[in-house]
Design a protein that fits this description.
The protein is an alpha+beta fold and 264 residues long. It is built from two helices and ten strands; from the N terminus they run αββββββββββα.
Length: 264
């Protein structure tokens, strides 16, 4: 009887703990098998399922990096290079640049040109540190106070110009070329003839003067008339000279005769 009671109690105890034992066995079995598989395989199986991380492109900074960036609506960045002009230092004690005329030769005296012919001007630049890109060449007439354009935006690499006065056409209602004294003007096309000279820069030039005239048509010698000549004055001059000659001759003769008459 005692054995039967013990058997029944043991059966009840086993029935109570069997779920926990079976559950632990079910969990230990798969874990033990998974641990054994991971131990035998050195590469983890979970690495294949990990997505690869995409890294953003590295931003590099070098000598080619643009100075400014702008971002558009689509997120794309565009760069535009910024250019800085290099300033040229000029010692303020230096003289301003100038113009030395080569043609015409100024040492040969005053220059006169007939209106209608071609006139050549040539020069050199001196003491230039900051060279202009181009110059304007003009001629100022003192007779009618008009400034006539010879050349505009003339390259500094070509310091010469030919002025065809025969084909020249005045601009802006100017009068035609007049006879008189002209002054050659050369200055920076970005400046003015009245600009103040600056050290190392081209100073306005107005140091060449020349004359221009309009010739008259040819007149035969037989038809030529002298406007300043007076034929009546020439006849009067001849008569007076003869009278003076006769008078002095008479006085000389009388004085010579009297000298010998009263001579002892």
């Amino acid at each position: 009887m005692h054995l039967l009671k013990t058997f029944v109690l043991s059966s009840v105890f086993l029935l109570n703990i069997s779920p926990y034992v079976l559950g632990s066995a079910l969990e230990v079995g798969p874990n033990y098998r998974r641990q054994a598989r991971e131990t035998s395989d050195p590469e983890p199986a979970s690495s294949a399922s990990v997505p690869e991380r995409t890294s953003s492109p590295a931003r590099t900074t070098g000598s080619d990096t643009p100075a400014s960036r702008s971002t558009g609506r689509n997120g794309a960045s565009s760069s535009s290079p910024t250019t800085k002009a290099k300033a040229t230092f000029v010692d303020p004690r230096l003289p301003p640049g100038g113009v030395a005329i080569k043609t015409p030769i100024t040492t040969s005296g005053s220059q006169y040109y007939k209106i209608g012919q071609k006139i050549t001007f040539g020069w050199n630049y001196t003491s230039l540190i900051v060279s202009p890109s181009a110059v304007n060449v003009e001629a100022f007439c003192s007779g009618n106070s008009q400034t006539y354009t010879i050349a505009q935006n003339l390259s500094i690499a070509k310091p010469s110009v030919v002025w065809d006065t025969g084909l020249f056409k005045p601009q802006n209602g100017q009068p035609p070329l007049a006879m008189g004294t002209y002054t050659l003007l050369i200055y920076d096309e970005k400046s003015a003839i009245t600009a103040i000279p600056v050290a190392g820069n081209l100073a306005p030039f107005n140091g060449l003067r020349f004359g221009m005239y309009t010739p008259k048509p040819y007149t035969p010698l037989a038809d030529f008339e002298c406007p300043t000549c007076d034929t009546s004055s020439a006849v009067t001059l001849d008569t007076t000279a003869i009278r003076m000659l006769v008078l002095f001759s008479t006085l000389f003769s009388l004085s010579f005769g009297l000298f010998f008459t009263f001579l002892p």
